[in-house]
Amino acid sequence: MNERRTSCKLNFPILIADDNILQRKVLEKTLKESGHEVVAASDGRQAIEIFKSGYYPIIISDRVMPNMSGLELCRTIRDNFQDQFTYFILLSALDSKADVRKAMDAGIDEYLIKPVKPTDLFLRLATARRVLHLEQTLRRSLEEARQLATTDSLTHIYNRGFLDERLPMEVKRAFRYDRPLSVIFSDIDHFKLINDTYGHRAGDEVLKDFARRIKGHVREEVDWLARYGGEEFVVILPETDIDGAMIVANRLKNAIANSPITVDAAAIGITASFGAASFSPKGKPDAGKMAIELLGRADRCLYAAKEGGRNRCEGARLN
Q1: Catalytic residue among 28, 110, 231, 314
Q2: How many CB atoms lie within 10 A of CB 115?
Q3: 183, 238, 286, 289: which has the highest count of C-beta atoms within 10 A?
Q4: Confidence check: pLDDT of 203 > 50
């Protein structure tokens, strides 16, 4: 399914479905003259193909059409394209209460009896625009709330809650596609000393810069980073075995150690320790249990790196 974009224009694009050429042409001309972007289909099936390839938040359809009726078209849209709300206006010569009720049960938003007066149609379109603008506002609010719920407020990367929810999904995907998965546990060395020496504001700047550097040295839109807590961070590396994870861990270690962070004219040199763990799919795992084991092994490798003198990387393979 194509990703759908939202629109802030006054007039939303409209898809027309009508097998009557004359009626379709008249309706198309009327809508275009009022400033709408319009695409027309000769039946429901063609309308579905057009709908899949673009953004059409308003559909105006005749009820009776060959191949796929207006009611069938509406049901198909409602059942298969739930990522974006679509305002559906049905045009029909049938005006009994039973006909209207059947249309509403199919998911129709507006039911207009033919012949339709332009003023009636434009009133319905005004309602459609208000509903669509409200729907977009709600979606943006929900997305902002989701971002707040899954993002660490200081570093603006994913938080522990997101990690706990998403990592089992990554495990499932690794098994589904028979690909390795690795995690890297990292911890800033002697972070308490940084806070004690330079203050907590400087400590916050160190955490933010640390997250930026890690994020800048992993694959965009493939690998992802979460703050585990305090000065601990976790990097998730899909389709990466332990050898690849150790290469990444050492690259991250060097990126941190080679450049001090400047806070209020003070150059603060930091290092970090890294523990990597990886598994290759075998059998049918409990995704939640495997995620815990993967993090646990990476944490033990991190502890070994710290015990070995810090500013080091250690790694292990689960199987």
Answers
A1: 231
A2: 9
A3: 183
A4: yes
Task: Give whole-number Cα distances, 75 to 53, 70, 87, 208, 219, in Å.
Answer: 18, 9, 12, 48, 41
Classify the C-alpha dihedral 70-72-73-77 as positive or negative: positive
| DSSP character string of 207-226 | HHHHHHHHHHTS-TTTSEEE
To the nearest whole number, what is the mean pLDDT of the chain?
Answer: 91
Share of the chain above pLDDT 90, in %: 76
| Structural tokens at position 276 | 């990597």
In order of 43, 306, 314, the CA distances from 297 in angstroms are 58, 14, 11
**DSSP alpha helices (H): ranges in the chain?**
21-33, 44-52, 70-80, 97-105, 118-150, 160-176, 191-198, 200-216, 242-257, 287-307
Say how far apart CA 57 and CA 172 lie, in whole Å. Answer: 34
Quote the tokens at residue 118.
Answer: 């332009």
- Domain spans of the chain? 14-147, 160-317
Of 272, 24, 280, 78, nearest to 177 by C-alpha is 280
Q: Which fold has domain 160-317?
A: Alpha-Beta Plaits (3.30.70)
d(CA 141, CA 194): 38
Residue 314 among the catalytic residues? no
CA pair distance 267, 63, nearest whole angstrom: 72
Confidence of residue 6 (pLDDT cuts 50, 70, 90): very low
The class of domain 14-147 in CATH terms is: alpha beta
> Quick one: pLDDT at residue 56?
93
Longest Cα–Cα distance in the chain: 83
Cα–Cα distance measured from residue 82 to residue 85, given in angstroms and rounded to the nearest whole number: 7
Pairing of strands 224-229, 232-238: antiparallel
Angle, alpha carbons 9-136-43 (nearest 5°)? 70
Question: Token pair of 307, please?
Answer: 């015990």
